[in-house]
Design a protein that fits this description.
This protein is α+β, with helices and mostly antiparallel strands. Among the domains are: 20-57, no CATH class; 66-214, no CATH class; 430-515, no CATH class. Helices cover 18% and strands 28% of the residues. Strands 5-6-7-8-9-10-11-12-13 form a nine-stranded antiparallel β-sheet, with helices on one face. A nine-stranded antiparallel β-sheet has the order 14-15-16-17-18-19-20-21-22, with no helix packed on it. It is elongated and about 175 Å long.
Amino acid sequence: MKEKRVKATSKVSLSNNTDIHVGPTPPPFPVEGQQWLNTSTNPPQLYVWDGEKWVLQQIDIEKLDPDLIDELKNDTLQKHQELLDEIEGINTSMDNLKQTVEERNQQDDAAFATVTQSIIDNRVEALGWYEENDGRISGIAQSMEGLVLRVGNAERELTTLTLTASGLRSEVNSLNNGTASIMTQMSDRINLRVQKGDVISQISVEADKGVYIAGKAIYLDGTVKVADTFVAPRIISANSANTAYTKIEGQQMTCFGYFSNNWRGKTYAGNHSLEAKVGYIKMKQLDGGNTNALYYSAKGISTRMDADNNGSASGVIEFFADGYTSQANSLVLASSGNIILESTVGSNIFINPAGGSLYVSDKNYNMYDIYAKLADLNRVNAVTAGIGNFYFNSTNINSWSDAIKIGGTTGNVVISGNMTCAKLVETSKRELKKNIQTYEGDALAIINSMRITEYQYLDDIEGIDRPYVGLILDEAPVEVADTKGEGVLVAQGTWLNSRAIQQLLHRVEELERKVA
């Protein structure tokens, strides 16, 4: 019997696409709907395979703990409703007190009119009662119901004081113009009012009801202290000239007035307003050549209410933004103009990613260039060089694409010190070049014309730094000299050496053929 041999083996793995793969690299052979928690980022980011690519998931903060969010919302709504109920209760109490006072006024007027007339009709004559033909009257009437004192004159002014067991009433009437002042004092209340027709100014104090003050205008001259809740449909505070005021009405507070201020070397003066409404606070200058407005809202700060960079807004600071990452607590600085970070002389500007990364990109991670001209004033010609100068106090410079590009294909990089690298690559793609042809020059002659020198740089220390071997630009052949006069082309010399080796090989081959 022949021995059986294994022709092939295989392994089949079954996975549940609802499982989450956790790690710094994506899982191999993903299936649609599979989730990957990328731990190489801080914080980790969640991706889902859509059948073609990994899609970053935007985290809705309300979905992280919906029960907690609902609890917070319900608690806020409950407290808001309790406040509304309290205000409604106060308004109801005020309406009830007003109605009670009006009813008491009618009851007291009717009751005292009846008892006053009863006292006069049943008066004791010994007390005296005098009436003159010219309309003057003066008298005192007393009965079992109480005591009445009355004085009147021809001008139809009448003052009456009524005392009963239940209270005291003082009334002064002008029958010509229909005005009257009435003060009623009972054991449980005091009521003072001045009335002309239907217009009443009144102060009513009751033990179990409170204090009711009514009038066409009420002036409080002096310090006013409110120990508990103060409820009013509208409050206005203004200066004596009415050129500045603060108004509180419903859901809006407005402050208006003239303001002058020095800001960054310029003087800004004019009428300003501050408005606080439900959802935002707005500050605006209304005249003086500057009519910009600044808005504060729960989402950020903006020079436009809609935070839209449409050319008329200076900028936006957005809080709890999630437009660039899945993190809902990001901070965005946006502007329709330039964004400027400016420090005073001698101060520094720091950017601290705290272990993260620094990007120059849009929301889709498309990278953009950085243009800068940094000058160190302690370095010679740093300002007049006319190019961007960068000084790094670091041992590592990393990039997103594993490449650092300075100046493009035609730019220059000047390094005054040593450069150490694992591999030096010269740009050499065909699509980057033109006028391509085989070099037929005599490289041997060029190399033979070079004067190889030994030298030191001016900063080198004699006896310590070893001398260098190389060319002097002033004596170098044109084939290896830099056209800008900054140095020699090392790579050019290398390729000339290669060409010279080719020439030598050709000569060796010719000699070998002749010998053979």
